[in-house]
Amino acid sequence: MKKCIYKSSRTKSFFLIVLSLLGLSSCDYFENIFSPKCMYGSPTVDYNIHGNVKNETGSAISGIKIVFNRVEQTEVNGEYVYPCDSLFTNSSGNYSFTYKGLANSFRLVAKDIDGIKNGGEYNEVIINVADSDFIKNKDGDGSWYLGSVDLEKNLVMKEKTDE
To answer: pTM for the full model?
Structure first.
């Protein structure tokens, strides 16, 4: 013998209405109105780094390779260096780079890879840049985008000496 809990579709409808009023439903209409929305992603910032490269006498150096690395410090394993991008200085010695993401610090490495073609041979320059060194120039949108920051970093390269 079968027992029927719901005698009619009217009774079934009544229980569904009561359950939905008690919050036992699959529809999250009210949840979206009264609580914060769930968002998936990660915070991002536009990091703009630009500057110029000169020698010790103040002359611009073209053709210098600038390597941008994102550096993360961990308590367990120490330092992780993630390569981001590289570019070359233009004829005026200027460079400009934008990184979209989130970083604690960057490492800029300036390398003379073309020998004497750019006026001499220069030693490698390594500069560490902290997140706090940047100047905020644009606010975020109140969501995952935290805005844009800017940093001008001018580099002076020393000529290699015969040692």
So the answer is: 0.69
| Domain locations along the chain | 44-157
Concatenated DSSP letters of the chain: ----S--SHHHHHHHHHHHHHTT-SS--HHHHHHSPPP--S--EEEEEEEEEEEETTS-B--SEEEEEEEEEEETTTEEEEEEEEEEE--TTSEEEEEEEE--SEEEEEEEE-SGGGGSS-B--EEEEEEGGGSEEEEE--SSSEEEEEEEE--EEEPBP---
Task: Quote the CA–CA distance of 134 and 147 in Å, as a whole number.
Answer: 12
Tens digit of each residue's pLDDT (9 = 90 or more) over 86-142: 999 999 999 999 999 888 899 999 999 887 887 788 999 999 999 889 999 898 888
**Assigned CATH class of 44-157:** mainly beta
> What are the tens digits of pLDDT across the range 32-56?
555 555 667 788 899 999 999 999 9
Q: How far is CA 104 from CA 66, 67, 82, 114, in A?
A: 19, 17, 12, 32
Task: Compute the distance between CA of residue 2 and CA of residue 42 in angstroms, rounded to an integer.
Answer: 54
